[in-house]
Amino acid sequence: MAEPHAQRTRPDHMTWRHWLLASAISLALLALLGRLAWIQIANHEHYTELAAASRADAELLPAPRGAILDASGHPLAISVDTWDLYIDSFLWRDRERAGEAAVALGSAMGLDAATLFEMGISRENGDVIVQRFIDYERGLALRERGIWGVRLLPSSQRVYAEQELAGPLIGYVGLDGSGLWGIERDFDPVLRGQPGLLLSERDALGRPIAFAASGGREPTVGGEVQLTIDRFIQAIAEQRLAEAVEANKASGGTVIVMEPRSGAILAMASLPSISLADVDLDDEQVLDLARNRAVSDLYEPGSVFKTLTTATAIDLGLITPQTTYVDEGWVHVGGHTIRNWDFTGYGEVTMTEFLRRSLNTGSIWISQQIGAERFYEYLDRFGVGQPTHIELSGEAPGMLRRVGDPDWYAVDLATHSYGQGLAATPLQVISAVNSFATGGLLMRPQIVHSVVASDGVRVHEPVVIRRTVSPETAHTVARMMLEVVEGVPWHLARVEGYRVAGKTGTTIVTIAGGYDPDTTIASFVGFLPYEDPRVTILVKIDEPRGDSNLAGIVAAPVFSTIAAEIMEYLRVPPGERQVSNP
Description:
Elements: H1 11-42, H2 44-55, E1 56-61, E2 68-69, E3 75-88, H3 95-109, H4 113-120, E4 127-135, H5 136-145, E5 150-160, H6 167-170, E6 172-173, E7 179-181, H7 182-186, H8 188-192, E8 196-201, E9 215-217, E10 224-227, H9 231-247, E11 252-258, E12 265-271, H10 286-289, H11 293-296, H12 306-315, E13 324-327, E14 330-333, E15 336-339, E16 347-350, H13 351-357, H14 360-370, H15 372-381, H16 410-417, H17 426-434, E17 441-443, E18 448-453, E19 456-459, E20 464-467, H18 471-486, E21 501-511, E22 514-528, E23 535-542, H19 551-554, H20 556-570
Parallel strand pairs: 2-10
Antiparallel strand pairs: 1-8, 2-3, 3-4, 3-5, 6-7, 8-9, 10-18, 11-12, 11-23, 13-16, 14-15, 17-20, 18-19, 21-22, 22-23
Helix pairs in contact: 3-4, 9-20, 12-14, 12-18, 13-18, 14-16
């Protein structure tokens, strides 16, 4: 009988397989141990840094922007501490807890919980902004509540203390913290400051580690810019300009107030303008409203320029205030007939009378005595057709054709002598005329008094650009300008208790192919008190369409009102009104 079949084994074969498997495992373990040893010992620092980096979280902390101050140190633009509120969308993947957090956050902020919930789950990762510029104390209270999945980061908000004041000049800051125009833009590198850095750690799921070590650096506050602008004088200028534009149905205007000896700008107002109280950056008109017309807009100054022509001839020794010429009411130059503004001839008149009556024929006669070469040399001295280099961007250089230019004609000498056919900014005009109040010194207009930055304090001292005419000539022209105003008892630029030296300018506006006789720019430039000038003031009213469009009726009374209020504000004592014969 055969033996039962037994299960056969192959012990030799199984032993070989076990040995092979064990060897492979051993080799793998040895390799792994070797790798771990290499990581832990040979390259420990490198992998420690990588591990830390994978957990590190960095947040930029905005630097508080430096303040913009007026001449007295009153803040015009400051930054206040606020908070920006975010939802951590990664954590809000937990829908149940996110719903609870939305209810709590909505209750605390007065917001709709459902809307917050949808905002928080709208993204898979990252922060979702809920609200910017939350009041600092309110943010602290919200932070103490510790609402899950909600983050508050320090921020700062730009606040304009005088919201309606000097919008084009001061400028504005965008959401990214950059200055968009005005001082905010031109001094952005100074005002901006240095952002801080907040370092913290997150776990493998991206959640903040509550008690992990943190660090970073504190933000550095930006520098401070103090302007020469006096907010009270600025307010006077803006208010009176607005009243004049409305009363004369004008399209706009400009007022500049300058301190004669230093060139400091005490006020710079223009219309149309922008209010910093409610800036809509999406408005297509915002760039036009933000334009500083005092430095960017060109116009033909008109008869104000007769003072420069007169000063040139006096400085060259060609005329005196008593020199006479025969005024027939018109003059023929280069195939063109040019008439006085009132179409009247006055016979034999002195230079003082010509300036007081603002006769075009007188300016032309004087320019012919000077000659073209010397005439334009003196216009260069006065800065005509040149930027003033004030510390503001967007300044236009002006336009002036000269002898030798292909588009210059003989008639240009005649028209330029009374301020037509050339273009300048209001700032260039007041700077030139101001030289008669300084004894013949052309001062650089100054808008910034000082800058306080990380590298110290920089005070901007007055700068004399050059001499325009001799002190004697400047004094003589100033006396003639005094006669222009004080020699006419009914002159509307007069200021009770103070003697004014000034000159009107009525310019016919250019249109395609010529001039529009019904559209003018009315201006007046003057300084007071005559004996010791404290301010030089330019008033320019664009396209008045009220009862009159003449400068003596439109611009002169605005000058008088502004000047009287400034004299009272500066506490300048009144003096005598007698006018000496020039």
